[in-house]
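Record pair follows.
FIRST:
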Amino acid sequence: MVTQADRNPVIACSRPRFRTEPVVCAVSATAVAAVSSTATGATVPLCAVGRLEVMVFRIRRVYDNILARDRAAVEQVQVMLAERFPGLDPKEVKSLPDKLRRPVEHGFRAILYVAENQRRTVKAFALVFHEPDIGFVWLDYLASAAGGGGRGLGGTLYERIRADARELGVWAVLFECLPDEEALCTDPGHRRQNAARLRFYEGFGARPVVGTAYETPVTPGDDEPPYLVVDGLGSGRPPTRHAARAAVRAILDRKYRHLCPPEYVERVVASFTDEPVRLRPYRYATPPAEVASAEPRPEPPPADRRIALVVNDRHLIHHVRERGYVESPVRIDAIRRQLEPTLLFDEIPPRRFPDRHLLAVHDRGYVGYLERVCERVGEGRAVYPYVFPIRNSARPPRELEVRAGYYCIDTFTPLDGNAFRAARRAVDCALTAAHAVLDGRRLAYALVRPPGHHAERRAFGGFCYFNNTAIAANELARHARVAILDLDYHHGNGQQDIFWERGDVLTLSIHGHPNFAYPYFSGFADEVGAGAGRGANRNYPLEERVDGQRYREVLERALRRIEKHHADILVVALGLDTSRKDPTGSWDLGATDLAANGRLVGSLRLPTLVVQEGGYRIRSLGVNARSFFSGLWQAAVGLGDRQPARSSSAKLPPTS
């Protein structure tokens, strides 16, 4: 039975499943003209019909339902599925989160896109399935919410699907459309709606396959059997018979296996005899003109897939000019210069956060001391710790300058007039990046200095004053289960100290053995946490000489531990001092190794916040950062598939 709601002109649907009850949906013919030039970006401004009003929508991909915002979006989509498609099996609606998180069990890799307004209300969505081995994308649903408010979003969402499909390297987007021919659809009203939908997709070059038995109903006599529609993504070439047969078999065997008996599947697959497969001539749109081949200009990925970049805009005020002090402002510039040409980053300004976030991690007396002593020192001077309270730590010295050793773990981390302000701004940057993750960004990067992973609850050292990584992780832990992975050459003693008795945050560190590497007193393998945190701290101290292969072996062990923790969010303390010839390290990792490390970390496919820590060889610092993030992005959000879907075929040649 087909309801009037199913034929709402704002809704576009590629899944009019005829084999039980046909669902007829049409898209407005004007929707093609409404496609925004920002279809692959973050926000889409659309003028509301008949009103002097602009509605701003954000198009983004939803990877799973772990975080609150994503969970709310998935729940809204489930409501829309149930309301817009009343004949849909409730089990299929309920299975949506599982399809997103566990693609292998469902035969395809599900990809969900939503269009949200400024109130985070989902106004339209698209659900597609990627088959990486055969090389196609199946468009399952493309629909708007009941009651309007999303007119024109069908075209915008479809443009996003096509852009991502091209990046995936598939040969086509496939879907079903109900027929516009009288012989297959006897209802004139339905034919008009079907024609509107086919006209919409034909505007993108998508046309039905002809000369096959795909339109054959499973039950003889069923009305409106669907076409199989092929969008070749502008290639101008129809699919090969071999590729089409493999795709049709995958669709019928996996997606409709509960409806299609084996003999039906074989009959339909065998009917694809033309080489190449024939597509219906253009009926509603003008065939697209041939595009002259030219070197394409690189385009940035959609904004929701770019890495949110937050840079400490006040780091320059902290510049220790003493000879040999390697933690210098040029580090930020060296990294930034190499990241900008990648087009993978979307810079956002730091926000100011209240002190309660800082005091949730650091001792109040310690924070107050740093602020007072830095104000007292003033410009052009620096205080270096030189007296340490080994015997009587309960009675700190009265003089602020002398008291530095009461809160410090070394003699080479100075307190100058701007150390507090620069470090406090780095905290804001880390929290801003953390909230970008909570707001739906899959990757975020706090490019900050001074670093922070050596700062303990009530101690500074190793160029670190406040533990940016721990503060961000603590904030994220209020919303989800968190793991910290410290990839600096030196042990992340700060996170270990802060979360020592907490089991909700897993702390891992891969570093040079404390027998020869700073901070010397911590980072041993038998340090595992205490109390509720026992077992939630893991150290991987390595030998003095380490190459890329050895490092990856240990990194893979750490990643398995993160999976065992069932982390929802990953925080990476990124030190680039693991690289070859770094003045503070002894390992031999090159840019290729760092790219491989990034891919391994990204293969977890978790929302990930990266916080900059060490890395002091300026000549290679930027290249190494670019390599790590390129690998991370490629694996985490670059549309690659960590777990390939089951397939009945090897990778196929796309077209003739």
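SECOND:
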Amino acid sequence: MVRFEPGRRSRTLAAMLGSLRRSNPCAAFIRRIHPKRGARAHSARAHVDAAPMGISSLGSDIWRHGWQLLMAVMSIAAQAATPSAFGQYQPTPLYSERLSRSLYVPMRDGVRLAVRISQPALHGAVAPGRFPVIWQHAITSDEGGPSSAAEAGYRAVPSLTEYGYVVVQVARRGNGQSFGIRRGYNDRTEDDDSYEMTEWLASQPWSNGTVGIYGCSNTGDAAMHALNARPPHLKAVFAGCFSWSKFDAFHRGGIYAQWGVGIARSVEQDMVLPPVDGDESRTLLRQAAEEHQASTNLPELWKGMPYRDSFSPLVASRFWYESSISSFAQKLRESGTALYIQGGWHDELRDQGLITWLNYPRAHLLIGPWAHCLNPGFELLQEMHRFFDTYLKGLPTGLQAEPPIHYFLQQPGGGGEWRTAQHWPLDTQARKRWYLADLQLQVSAPSVASSVGFDVNASARCPSSGPYGGIGPYMQPCHPDHEGASFSGAPLEAPLTVIGHPILQLYVQVSTPDAHLFAYLEDVAPDGSVQVVTEGRLRVSMRAQHTAPWALPDIPWHRGWAEDELRSDADETVPLSFDLMPTAYVFGAGHRLALTITGYDYRESAPRADQVSIRVHSTPGQASMLELPLALNIGHAGLSEPSQ
């Protein structure tokens, strides 16, 4: 334990402080931990343990900040000698231990939220000083679990206490160990809670007033809603696999065909959670669990809002708008908070992160060859650590000098390499059309009319669970053998690199006033094996197009209001235009492009019960076509130099 004494040691530290404040790269960091006298970021931060009598005003500051100053010097020295690059960042740990405790924190309306605080420690005691805080607005206040060294990600964030962070888990109201009733899902009440909790964390005696938040999936949504709340002390947000627009995420194309329905737990399930400290009898835990049972039934909430402008009596709100950060786009852009967006090419929400980046262009963006909130083979925790060191500690990690976008360019069989970009969509690309004709994809427009029909089979199932399993958020699209209609092209003479959103233009005839339509872009290998590259969907009656109220790539947008519904007659051919989810993929030479169209997907949450027949038409005057975004002048290797 380092002890700070009056007299000579205080003067020595004062000299060190003056030197470090005048130097770079230390200056920004030292100014954070030792602001000019009289300056305080928040009134609650003015409470500091008094220094011993006889120490000067400057000496009092040194007494207060001495341990933190020493850790700052050690941190800067360790970081200066640490290689820092994309996904590679391992400074020397400053603390060998972590101590955790839990408590209840009352909100403005008296609802108590369960909070677990993990702090840096040495020799069995909490380390003195003030530290930046990173927190997660989670389902429970549990700390998380270990991850393998090669795949450390969100669950391993509490280990950042080793580097001088306080890491906090907060159970959202109506969830986990917290009290209250969950009204909806990422609603305005939770936004207000995130504001209040951020400011509470900033005011604690172990906090230096600089706060970051992180999360993935529903906690990624919660992190983005904290950004939307704009608490003054929130300086950095790392969010993965979240939704920009809840309607476009959960009712993509007007179809309730998303695995995510939200949280629903019984009293018994809540009672197995570890209670908050001091509640060993689990009395408070049971009271909280019983309160939760009055929460809104989320599957019923989603099903009861078929249109983007639907009003839900369950929450007395047009809830798609209330729960979507897209509704507050301008407010987000004005926040100035640092943002890092993470996604995966095999995640159902991958387009949402890219659209968020278009509307928050100062953000960093990372999208890998992963499913929902996974990062196999990539040191995600190191990248998160680098981000927080940059924006919470002011350390020169090199992150701000890099291109803002890192994406993985996939190749058949699971290979590929990392690429960088300054913009999305990429600056250098062209769109090329393939036309549908007699179960073929061809580069020339059809000269004669053709049509292909099929009956929808709502009992079709995926023949394999895919590389990530077949349940929950890991459900993947698959090629439905002998279902729907498949169109394939000729073998490619050279590799073809597709980066961005494919767009599908179809002319269809359906036997019922409405139908669901799904499309899958596929890679057919020379041995005949089929790999789904990306997919899209659209409810036929929701085909009307509008201009989106936020920035989008050059893709069709369907407003999806009740008044936009267009029912069709059985003998009517109607045009459909919709995008497929974005991808970055190289089709190899000798492989064939394929497009499969069906009227059912095994992941649907509410499939149609009626018998439907669908016919796809393509004529010289009304040609059904697939338009692909091709990266130019890069061959099969990618657009930019590989990330190092």
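COMMENT: The chain has a mean pLDDT of 86.
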